[in-house]
Amino acid sequence: xxxxxxxxxxxxxxxxxxxxxxxxxxxxxxxxxxxxxxxxxxxxxxxxxxxxxxxxxxxxxxxxxxxxxxxxxxxxxxxxxxxxxxxxxxxxxxxxxxxxxxxxxxxxxxxxxxxxxxxxxxxxxxxxxxxxxxxxxxxxxxxxxxxxxxxxxxxxxxxxxxxxxxxxxxxxxxxxxxxxxxxxxxxxxxxxxxxxxxxxxxxxxxxxxxxxxxxxxxxxxxxxxxxxxxxxxxxxxxxxxxxxxxxxxxxxxxxxxxxxxxxxxxxxxxxxxxxxxxxxxxxxxxxxxxxxxxxxxxxxxxxxxxxxxxxxxxxxxxxxxxxxxxxxxxxxxxxxxxxxxxxxxxxxxxxxxxxxxxxxxxxxxxxxxxxxxxxxxxxxxxxxxxxxxxxxxxxxxxxxxxxxxxxx
Length: 408
Ligand code: PMP
Ligand code: GLU
Fold this sequence. Notes:
With 408 residues, this protein is an alpha/beta fold. It folds into two domains: 6-44 and 288-407, Aspartate Aminotransferase, domain 1 (Alpha-Beta Complex), CATH 3.90.1150.10; 47-283, Aspartate Aminotransferase, domain 2, CATH 3.40.640. The protein has helices spanning 6-9, 15-28, 47-58, 71-85, 100-111, 126-134, 154-160, 183-194, 223-226, 253-266, 272-283, 287-308, 344-355, 379-398, and strands spanning 34-35, 94-97, 117-121, 138-142, 165-171, 200-204, 229-234, 247-250, 323-324, 335-336, 339-340, 357-358, 360-361, 371-374. A hairpin with a 2-residue loop joins strand 10 (335-336) and strand 11 (339-340). The longest helix has 22 residues, at 287-308. The radius of gyration is 21 Å and the shape is globular. 49% of the residues are buried. 4'-deoxy-4'-aminopyridoxal-5'-phosphate binds next to helix 5.
């Protein structure tokens, strides 16, 4: 019998990736599933980015890069932070990794000691709480609800802080809710943090460019917070480059140096070709980013309209990212073929198996009454998917036990 370490045994599987995999398995069996589970854009990486990658291959970028990434890329990122965010960073404070996911994990592994508390507002992205566990920290979850726009208040943050608080993870625009903190709201949180200089802020800004309410605001803009903020970002979402695996963090020097040391022992620098592609993405024409943002906004409007038409689903208007996170509590507790659906993960499974729409139950996001639909897919798919969801939920309501709700 082989024993997996206790550290790993305590870890949950990534629910976003698991639901996507299940959906792909059903598709492979010939079932016509619409996959709204994984958060990944359906656009292709822009041609000028692909050309830069081809050139990198031809130019023999085939040797190890520096662990933190090429200086040229880190300078380009510093330029992006200056031009787009008005923030001054030197290249030695930037560490490039295999996706923003690794950047968040690097930051946590570098700052959290066993037993340290990490404050995470819920609903949260599935991997944060698991990464905290990996770092042997303790998750301190602040709950919010749809009525408060899924955003925490300064009073809630204050109440969650203890002498053991090591870090606070903020995600705006937020996955899974699509909520975006305004400058005023960030200032309110920054004011609370001002009284607790030992707390490090991890600001996940991967959805920076997918924002429907205006300019992106970073909590790092407040002087007293900047020197203890780790900004996490990357090219996955803005430039349709999820599979290239290139993310980065911008941090205080000590944290960047620690991430460099950590990464030097377990992954080295990210792929050279992806680095050269990311450099081109940031330096090239930015109209592709706006074109995709506008498409997401149209899809957001469409899915909000369609979902609002489903009885008893409580719908919240997302202001950024590409997820809809309705409250589906009305349907929890109902039964299908005599089997009770007792939480949103089971509801997601019901929608997949009977409605042939893949979504992710809110349980994995710390919001058991909600369900996440990623709308990073065509309008045609969204129309069909929401029609199926409606039929499946109405069938639950009426206690219809017809086998194939998808085609009824
Ligand atoms: N943070 C959030 C909030 C995300 O949704 C994602 C998406 N996977 C990531 C980080 C990681 O992005 P990447 O693909 O660059 O690893
Ligand atoms: N961020 C995406 C999501 O939430 C990608 C999947 C993942 O990395 O977990 O679906």
